[in-house]
Design goal:
The protein has one domain. The longest helix is centred in the middle third of the chain and has 14 residues. It has a two-stranded antiparallel ribbon with strand order 1-2. The protein is built from three helices and two strands, in the order αββαα. The mean pLDDT is about 80. Strand 1 and strand 2 form a beta hairpin. The chain is mainly alpha-helical. Pfam families: BKACE. InterPro entries: Aldolase_TIM, BKACE. GO terms for molecular function: 3-keto-5-aminohexanoate cleavage activity.
Length: about 80
Amino acid sequence: MPGEWRDDVNPPERARRVGLALGGDARAGLEDTLYLCKGEIVRGNTPLAQGTADLARSLDLASASVDRTEKILSLPSR
């Protein structure tokens, strides 16, 4: 597996890593966790989303575009 798979990763991040590695989808945001890594409080959604996107790329997976995400979530078009 790419990246570090250590025990100091918080549970939501670990779940994201395992889920993506097994071919599932991932979500990331303050509604899921307040920590970027164990003991480090995150200051917003951007670092969480960026970390998930980086992880997906490391697994050679693509992230959904904004347009695709709106469609998946049945959101109104911009």
